[in-house]
Amino acid sequence: MKKKIIIACHECDLLHRIESLPEGSTALCRRCHAVLLSHKKDSLNRSLALNITALILFFISNAYPLIEIKTEGICRATTLMGGVRNLYDQGFWEIALLVLFTAILFPGFEILSRLYLLLPLKFYKKPWHMSLIIKFIQKIKPWGMMDVFMLGILVSVIKLVKMVSVIPGPSLYSFFALIFVVTGAASAMDFHSIWEKA
Ligand SMILES: [Zn+2]
């Protein structure tokens, strides 16, 4: 007998009994046609590749200078973490904490948690505390705001360019790429097929 799962439509609450979906197909609500479930193609390998790329970009973004500022012959480079420390030193500890959590810690935790789920599954092993980690990923996902932070950096760079010479560092490029890779990694993730594999 084929395994069936019961899903409530998130738009109209209609209950559906669904058999396991073939790869690349989507189940729609009978009443309002909202997407109930979609079984993405080769989701495990694609998510794994995107999350490993994200981890490398995350490392580069944090290890190298974000921008260098040249003024009156003095050159100052700052990293992401250095920026957080500067904000803290200037008394803006609330903003420093906000940047630390939304631009560094939450995106980092999100990438690591996804790899924690995907790597064992790739080798046909069930990760420990799977449901807890899935809940954790879904809880912290809205708090990753690298795109907002990037917009903030670009606005301040444009303003600074008029007064001092600003040189973009390697971290700025990798951080920009990281935003797209993390978004791709999140959309490639298919929790339904993860449950099925586990
Ligand atoms: Zn519906």
Q: If you had to describe this structure to a student in words, what would you say it looks like?
A:
- The protein has 2 domains: 1-39, no CATH class; 42-197, no CATH class.
- The chain is 58% helix and 16% strand.
- The chain has a 3-stranded antiparallel beta sheet. A two-stranded antiparallel sheet has the order 1-2.
- The protein has 198 residues and is α+β, with helices and mostly antiparallel strands.
- Residues 9, 11-12, 14, 29, 31-32, 34 line the site of zinc ion.
- The chain crosses the membrane at residues 48-67, 95-119, 140-161, 173-195.
- Pfam families: PqiA.
- InterPro entries: PqiA-like.
- This is Paraquat-inducible protein A.
> What structural class do helix, strand and pairing data support?
alpha+beta
Average of per-residue pLDDT values: 89
What is the helix tally?
7
- Number of spatially distinct domains: 2
SSE pattern: EEEEHEEHHHHEHH
The low-pLDDT segments are: none
| Major sheet size, sense and barrel closure | 3 strands, antiparallel
Quantity of strands, as a count:
7
Which word captures the global form? elongated
Helix content: 55-70%
Radius of gyration: 21 Å
| Bound ligands, each once | zinc ion
N-C termini distance: 19 Å
Strand order of the largest sheet: 6-5-7
Q: Estimate what percentage of residues fall within beta strands.
A: 15-25%
